[in-house]
Design a protein that fits this description.
This protein has a single domain, classed as Beta Barrel (Porin), CATH 2.40.160.20. The protein is elongated. With about 200 residues, the protein is mainly β. A hairpin with a 2-residue loop joins β4 (about 90-110) and β5. The two termini are about 35 Å apart. The relative contact order is 0.20. Strands 1-2-3-4-5-7-8-9 form an 8-stranded antiparallel β-barrel. About 10% of the residues lie in helices and about 70% in strands. It is built from 1 helix and 9 strands; from the N terminus they run αβββββββββ.
Length: about 200
């Protein structure tokens, strides 16, 4: 899987350096509706994303869009906790993840201003905490440091560079380190951005 993403990245930048007609830079941010499907059960976490965008124009309709995004993700869950007396009880809380995500998206302009997006994404875990009863515990060691996803979405850009988009990322790799559970990141991103023309 890692080799596939590396091959896609190398191919993308090789292609854009040879054929790019126009390079544009921008910024974006917005709302994350994140969840992790853990063994068939899923609870959500609302957070945000923010970052930078580079767009390599290939033709009038086709571009390659590369982004660097800080992304808050995670999920709600109940976990068993044992007290000093040996009794076990379930505590409900939120797993809070912070990632740096690097999507590489193919962009196709359907009609003027309206475009579709499709491509892979690799994420690097910065932190992972479990929050319950106003306390947070560092649980980063329980999760893998690299996450792979596929993403697709739609976007609309005005003539002045202001743009709006919605994207869904589907997790392709298990995020748990120990293998005792199977979970994948899923995130709906609703963004507002600006491209410098």
């Amino acid at each position: 899987m890692k080799n596939l993403f590396l091959l896609v990245a190398i191919s993308t930048f090789s292609t854009t350096s040879l054929f790019a007609q126009e390079i544009r830079f921008g910024t974006k941010g917005g709302l994350n509706l994140a969840s992790v499907n853990v063994d068939g059960e899923s609870g959500g976490r609302t957070s945000f994303h923010i970052g930078s965008v580079v767009e390599f124009g290939i033709t009038d309709e086709i571009s390659i869009v590369s982004e660097v995004l800080f992304s808050g993700q995670g999920f709600k869950a109940e976990i068993p906790v044992q007290d000093n007396a040996g009794n076990t009880q379930n505590i409900e809380g939120t797993f809070k993840f912070n990632y740096i995500n690097l999507p590489i998206m193919g962009k196709y302009e359907i009609v003027e201003g309206l475009s579709s997006y499709l491509g892979p994404q690799v994420g690097f875990l910065l932190s992972a905490d479990f929050e319950a009863n106003d306390q947070e515990v560092d649980v980063k060691d329980s999760f893998k440091s690299i996450d792979f996803s596929g993403a697709f979405g739609l976007g609309y850009e005005l003539d002045n560079g202001l743009n709006f988009s919605a994207r869904y990322t589907v997790g392709l790799s298990d995020i748990f380190e120990d293998g005792n559970a199977d979970g994948k990141n899923n995130v709906l991103l609703v963004s507002v951005g600006y491209m410098f023309n």
